[in-house]
Amino acid sequence: MELTSRLLEQFVVLAEEKHFGRAAHRLSMSQPPLSQAMQRLERRLGVPLLERAGRGVQLTAAGVAFAADAKRLLEAQDAAVARVRRVGRGVEGTVRLGYVSSLGYWHLPQLLTLAAREVPGIRLDVRQRDSAELAEQVRQGAVDLALVRLPVTDQADLAVQEVAEERTVLAVPLGHPLADAGPVPLSRLRDEEFVTAAPSAMARMHDLIQEVCREAGFVPRSRAQAEELTSMLGYTAARVAVCFVPERIAALGHPMIRFVPLAEAHRLVTTVAALSRPAADPAVETLLELMKRHRQEIEGPAAAAGPEA
């Protein structure tokens, strides 16, 4: 005889009621089959679990111990069933989330905040990589979801969902002639020296800036090149060069830098997207839907309106 969930449930209910009639009623069965089941259980275990006492029953020492263990087994089984159903509904589980460095200042924290608030059962394990590496890791299943800037060179076998758009601002050191300016035309920057984004690290931003500056009549003079925004801002804070950065960086502020809006900001826009596999896990689908419903929060407020943004 197997120790089925039903048999364990019968014993636990009888242990609680200490009366065959009441236990049978709770179990929606008649008393004789319950009595027979308990006899079979005692034979299966080889020890007495119950002592008949008048019209009721008492548990032996072995019965007390077995009742406690049986109850824990049933609770664990119920918990396992409930958890697998939550995972199946996409409200619990672990998602490996990748992101490019420039999205770690605003977009990633916004997503983490939303997930913690609305789907606390989903755990996000985050890692930083470049766009090409993230795309390949999503394809191979090493990453479940990735936040990148479009375009991604190879989108084969990937599902791409646009998450937000982000304008570009100019970062200048304190005391710079443009530090307190309003929207600055790009043509006023022809004599500036820049620290530029390495094409391998921020390809879309690099190409877009080059294109729009050429249309404004100049090619940005590169004093240095950096692969991360923190390095670019370091050059600017040191008064070595100015730089173009995504506007959400301005939301963090910097004691040695001013972020100035650009007159052509509407043309200097990059698109943030989420990469996943076409047949994504339910938890990934939940996060994609979350980002769709809360795009405004993830995208952030309107473009920087002044030097103190």
Quick tags:
D-Maltodextrin-Binding Protein, domain 2; seven-stranded mixed beta sheet; 309 residues; single chain; disordered C terminus; 3 domains; two-stranded antiparallel ribbon; 11 strands; 22% strand
CATH topology (level 3) name of the largest domain: D-Maltodextrin-Binding Protein, domain 2
Order of helices and strands: HHHEEHEHEHEEEHEHEEEHH
Category by helix and strand content: alpha/beta
Average pLDDT, to the nearest integer? 89
Distance separating the two termini: 73 Å
Radius of gyration: 32 Å
Strand content: 15-25%
Major β-sheet annotation: 7 strands, mixed
- Residues in helix, %: 40-55%
Low-confidence stretches: 303-309
Give the beta-strand count.
11
Structural summary, described in words:
This protein is an alpha/beta fold. The protein has 3 domains: 5-89, Arc Repressor Mutant, subunit A (Orthogonal Bundle); 93-161 and 274-299, 3-Layer(aba) Sandwich (D-Maltodextrin-Binding Protein, domain 2), CATH 3.40.190.10; 164-269, D-Maltodextrin-Binding Protein, domain 2, CATH 3.40.190.290. It contains 10 helices and 11 strands. The strands form 3 sheets. Strands 3, 4, 5, 6, 9, 10 and 11 form a 7-stranded mixed sheet that branches. The model is unreliable at 303-309 (pLDDT under 50).
Short précis:
With 309 residues, the chain is of the alpha/beta class. Helix content is 40%, strand content 22%. It has ten helices and eleven strands.
Helix and strand arrangement:
Blueprint: H1 5-17, H2 20-26, H3 31-45, E1 50-53, E2 56-59, H4 61-89, E3 93-99, H5 107-118, E4 122-128, H6 131-140, E5 145-149, E6 159-173, E7 193-197, H7 203-215, E8 221-226, H8 229-237, E9 243-246, E10 257-260, E11 269-276, H9 282-293, H10 295-299
Parallel strand pairs: 3-4, 3-5, 7-8
Antiparallel strand pairs: 1-2, 5-11, 6-9, 6-10, 6-11
